[in-house]
Specification:
single chain, alpha/beta, Udp-n-acetylmuramoylalanyl-d-glutamate--2,6- Diaminopimelate Ligase, Chain: A, domain 1, six-stranded mixed sheet, 36% helix, disordered N terminus
Length: 572
């Protein structure tokens, strides 16, 4: 019967990232925090991590500060990383370990590489089966044991010997290994100081080895040691050990006592960190003959070993999407992620999943309204900070119930949450909007991207940025800069058209900027209006594809603007 091999365990516990869309608004961030909290309470775990895919707006920052909730973790990509792979947690070994013990560990653990680490778990090198095999080519070097600075305890362990006397913690740094097969007179010619001598039970040979300055004698076949020999050895500080192996076998085995540091690879090691992307390391692995590669933490601590086999059938990051379901709005790398759930209130987009998922999509004004419903359905109490986040998100998405996207359910839910929070919802909303609409100190880039989303309709890729304010003059003053920036942003984003909604919350209207070839005519057809092309600002300026038009009553990107643009864009 073959011996059963013990498999080294793998790292299996994984976290689930709960995230909203890129350029997150208040709903996107608050929904992620609230839903992660709900999932953790239902499962009794802490594996659900709220995340954000961009910097929070001033409005969102106001909300988080008001309710003393920390910003969620920032993620810029969900591409599969080494940390997502179930790599082997192969234990690190000490550099003084014997070749024999290393071989035994490899065999029992079913591995071909062992990492060599310090006491603080810093990587010093690796030892492979190939390295151990090469060690046997040095079998004819009688001084190899001392050259390798072998600890005598390794010799004892390898030969399964009993120590009669002497300090086996010492290291052998001089001398050779030999078998005392001649008579005592002849032995004096070839036994030298610090040698290791394998011999039998003849006392005169043992005495001769001692007289000639041997550091260690190894008595084979379990022979007895006389009290006299033992006493003399103690006086001379010599090591005596007894093994049951015969001299031939002992001579063959003793080289296996050498420490692995003499044969391990130390220089030019190929290592990976948990943050490395699988796509990147795959190519490196393919060009190397190594089977296993060490994985290190950011501070250099050894974590485990990864092989090409570990990459087969690997799972991406586990992700739950809230407040969006379109790939163009999702964090980078979503195509390689393992999407578990989608909670949303927008039109169904084009996110593809690797397996069936829990998908909840309801025609409501805010994703946080859905999440509030899920709290109640699960019988989980909503604490004040969470209620505050959910209420704020509904206020933001519905413009305090003024948006056409708002439903009676949204308003009812927000007012119930306000009771939990203990605030005057109208006064709180005004303070929140004021904080968010204050655009002073922000760059045009920050203003453009603070609420930007990417859409696709037919062959047309377009982006929509929404800037809200309580100040009409403030919105008017930034038109030119926003148009100029949008032209550059289109190149970066790879889109055909860019639309900027300058929304006045108080007047419930939007001044729409349409940038890009055909953007103006598209708006004209979609809303039955006559947009105005931007005039040249100087005699030298070339004509720019930029239009503007007032859209009274239009405040919702999701319900009023994007559907119309999409409908007519698909006809282009």
């Amino acid at each position: 019967m073959p011996k059963n091999k013990t498999l080294i365990p793998h790292n299996t516990e994984r976290e689930v990232l709960v995230t909203g869309h890129r350029n997150p608004d208040t709903d996107s961030i608050c929904a992620a925090i609230a839903y992660a909290n709900l999932k953790n309470k239902i499962t009794g775990s802490s594996n659900y991590i709220p995340c954000r895919a961009g910097e929070p707006s001033r409005e969102t920052a106001f909300v988080l500060d008001y309710f003393k909730v920390p910003e969620p973790r920032l993620i810029t990509t969900v591409k599969t990383q080494v940390s997502d792979i179930e790599y082997r947690q192969t234990p690190g070994v000490n550099k003084n370990m014997s070749l024999k013990k290393a071989w035994t560990m490899m065999n029992e653990g079913n591995v071909v590489t062992l990492p060599v680490v310090t006491k603080r778990n810093a990587l010093e090198g690796v030892i492979t089966i190939g390295d151990i095999a090469k060690s046997y080519f040095n079998v004819y070097d009688s001084q190899i044991i001392s050259k390798a600075h072998t600890q005598f305890s390794n010799i004892q362990e390898t030969l399964e010997a009993t120590v009669v006397t002497g300090d086996v913690k010492r290291f052998c740094t001089e001398g050779k290994v030999l078998i005392a097969a001649a008579n005592p007179e002849m032995m004096s010619y070839y036994i030298e100081k610090h040698d290791i001598v394998l011999l039998g039970n003849r006392a005169e040979n043992q005495l001769s080895a001692m007289d000639n300055g041997a550091d260690c004698i190894i008595i084979c076949e379990g022979a007895d040691v006389s009290p006299t020999i033992k006493s003399l050895a103690e006086q001379n500080g010599m090591i005596i050990m007894v093994t049951s192996y015969d001299a031939y076998t002992a001579a063959r085995l003793i080289n296996q006592s050498m420490p692995i540091n003499y044969f391990m690879t130390e220089d030019n090691l190929i290592t990976f960190t948990e943050d490395d992307f699988v796509d990147d390391i795959h190519d490196i692995m393919a060009n190397k003959r190594h089977r296993d590669f060490p994985v290190l933490s950011k501070d250099g601590t050894y974590l485990g070993m990864i092989s090409r086999r570990n990459l087969l059938g690997n799972h991406g990051k586990q992700v739950i999407l809230v407040d969006h379901n379109e790939a163009g709005q999702a964090v980078e790398g979503i195509e390689s992620a393992d999407i578990l759930e989608i909670i949303d209130h927008h039109k169904i987009g084009a996110v593809q999943t690797m397996s069936p998922v829990y998908f909840r999509n309801q025609p409501l004004g805010c994703c946080s309204t859905i999440i509030t419903m899920m709290y109640r359905e699960s019988g989980v109490e909503i604490d004040r900070p969470t209620a505050g986040l959910l209420m704020s998100a509904i206020i933001s998405d519905t413009l305090l119930f003024r948006s056409p996207t708002c439903t009676p359910k949204d308003e009812k839910t927000a007012r119930e949450l306000a009771e939990i929070v203990g605030v005057d919802i109208e006064k709180y909303a005004f303070d929140m909007f004021s904080a968010g609409s204050n655009l002073k100190g922000k760059t045009i880039k920050e203003i453009f991207y603070q609420d930007f989303k990417h859409f696709k309709a037919g062959k047309v890729d377009f982006g929509v940025s929404q800037v809200t304010s309580l100040n009409k003059e403030e919105l008017e003053s930034m038109k030119d800069e926003l148009e100029d920036f949008a032209l550059e942003a289109m190149k970066v984003e790879g889109i055909d058209m860019s639309f900027i909604m300058l929304t006045n919350i108080l007047e419930r209207s939007t001044d729409l900027l349409a940038i890009g070839s055909g953007a103006g005519p598209l708006v004209n057809n979609a809303f039955a209006v006559e947009s105005v092309r931007r005039p040249a600002r100087s005699e030298d300026e070339k004509a720019v594809d930029a239009w503007s038009v007032e859209l009274p009553g239009v405040v919702s990107r999701k319900k009023q603007l994007v559907p119309q643009l999409t409908l007519f864009a698909e006809q282009l």
